[in-house]
Amino acid sequence: MEIRKADRAHIDKIMSLYKEAKIFMDNHGNKDQWPVGYPSKEMITKDIDKMYLCMYENQIAAVFYYAIEEDQDYKEIEGQWLNDAPYGVVHRVVSAHIVKGACKFILNWAYSQIPNLKMDTGIKNIPMQNLLESCGFKQCGKIVNTQGITCLAYQKGDTNEI
Questions:
Q1: What is the rounded distance in angstroms from the CA atom of residue 117 to the CA atom of residue 87?
Q2: HSE-up of 86 (CA within 13 Å, CB side)?
Q3: For residue 53, which of 87, 95, 21, 23 has the smallest C-alpha distance?
Q4: What is the CATH number of domain 2-156?
Q5: Do the Cβ atoms of 140 and 153 come closer than 8 Å?
Q6: Up-side HSE of residue 129: CA atoms within 13 Å toward CB?
Q7: Around 162, how many Cα atoms within 13 Å sit in the side-chain half-sphere?
Q8: Among candidate residues 24, 27, 4, 137, the one with its CA nearest the CA of residue 82
Q9: Residue 147: CB partners within 8 Å, gap ≥ 6?
Q10: Which tens digit of pLDDT belongs to each residue from 118-142?
Q11: What is the pLDDT of residues 44-64, one digit of tens each?
Q12: Residue 34 — φ and ψ, nearest 5°?
């Protein structure tokens, strides 16, 4: 597997994978994490410079958003982050289900870029919670995202006193 930057030519395929992921989440008890229309094509187009593809045998195995940036959703947390160092964020991870381990590959790649990552996931998104914990992320508390949805907040990095 390898990670590549996405570009505008990939937007329709990316949107198709998000549509499939939304159906999967709905069918597995996680109807509330992504509201209707999320993520929108406009959002993906705007974020295309931060969208990445996990490739397997010249096929898109997974898609995700990655950036080293302060996330507004993470300013307030019910709980406590592991540290206050600069961090990377990974959002909107979806698998095409063509190869096992693509999402774990993504998280390991992101951590190799900056060894301090923050993520969040829906309270009912058990598959993502299990993935994060298996990759060494610690649950730090809860955040409320810009869509008004309460999510579990995770971080992987050194523990420092704040």
A1: 5
A2: 5
A3: 95
A4: 3.40.630.30
A5: yes
A6: 14
A7: 8
A8: 137
A9: 35, 38
A10: 999 999 999 999 999 999 999 999 9
A11: 999 999 999 999 999 999 999
A12: -115, 110
